[in-house]
Design goal:
CATH architecture: 3-Layer(aba) Sandwich
CATH topology: Rossmann fold
CATH superfamily: P-loop containing nucleotide triphosphate hydrolases
Shape: globular
CATH class: Alpha Beta
Helix content: 25-40%
Length: 278
């Protein structure tokens, strides 16, 4: 079996998407899994969050256009089990260039296929931009699973239906037949507020088999770690954020032992409350 490719995506920004991609990858590496993290976001936050420089020509840009093998741009991180395909601001130009290329929605799949076939890694994670543009669509077409970080706020309930409906359409149409919803990660959880608890309750009611039990807390230490170029388990291994992502890594691996249901399976509709929770 080729290495599983997991897209970490949400069209809404500020939901902890890159924080989840970086820290889940780091926690899986801590559990002796060999991980490749592909930074597909031109903002390059995953790149800087792991202490790598945003170097011109180091992104996946040329690989998407078929001009350079992906293996040539893989960089090591501080953890020997975690490798990175870095990003830089010039990757924003790929939205235009890739759109002009033949099979424009399959460019990432074509770039990753030889690497996935080698089974050098246990998992390949793709950190996507906060949009449903060409780059994110490429990630969805390449991926076996979609991990959706979701902030514990009311508007997130509305936004999640957009990406879930897109996944179901891609799967059912045959455009991305391997794609399945890996799971929903609730982020920025504050147990002191009714809002956080109610949003988590809504998601558990509508998607009981998709939401992870691990809840990522709102944490100052999690917010500080990227500025030091470190995942949370290296920056403050004993904080609540580190514990939460370690728990998520354990849960992720446990779920991975069983087959992932097809994205086109009978999933209930996304919640559409009439009014925000009190």
């Amino acid at each position: 079996m080729p290495t599983p490719i997991i897209a970490v995506a949400n069209q809404k920004g500020g939901v902890g998407k890159t924080t989840t991609a970086v820290n889940l990858a780091a926690c899986l590496a801590e559990r002796r899994k060999k991980i490749l993290l592909v930074d597909l976001d031109p903002q390059a936050n995953a790149t800087s969050g792991l202490g790598l420089a945003k170097t011109e020509g180091a992104s996946i840009y040329d690989s998407l256009l078929g001009d350079r093998p992906l293996q040539e741009i893989i960089q090591p991180s501080a953890d020997s089990r975690l490798d990175v395909v870095a990003s830089e601001v010039d990757l924003a130009g790929a939205e235009i260039e890739v759109a002009r290329a033949e099979h424009h929605l399959l460019r990432l799949a074509m770039a990753l296929a030889p690497l996935a076939a080698q089974n050098h890694y246990d998992f390949i994670f793709v950190d996507c931009p906060p949009s449903l543009g060409i780059l994110t669509m490429n990630a969805l077409h390449a991926a076996d699973g979609l991990l959706i970080p979701m902030q514990c706020e009311y508007y997130a309930l509305e936004g999640i239906s957009v990406i879930l409906n897109l996944v179901h359409k891609l799967h059912d149409s045959g455009a991305a037949p391997r794609l399945a919803v890996e799971g929903i990660v609730m982020t920025m959880y504050d147990m002191r507020t009714n809002l956080s608890q109610q949003v988590v309750g809504e998601i558990r009611t509508h998607f009981p088999d998709k939401i992870y039990d691990s809840l990522i807390p709102r944490s100052v230490r999690l917010a500080e770690a990227p500025s030091h170029g470190l995942p949370i388990i290296a920056y403050d291994p004993n904080c609540t954020g580190a514990a939460a992502y370690r728990q998520l890594a354990r849960e992720f691996l446990k779920r991975r032992k069983t087959a992932v249901e097809p994205a086109g399976a009978d999933a209930p509709p996304a919640p559409a409350p009439d009014a925000p929770p009190a």
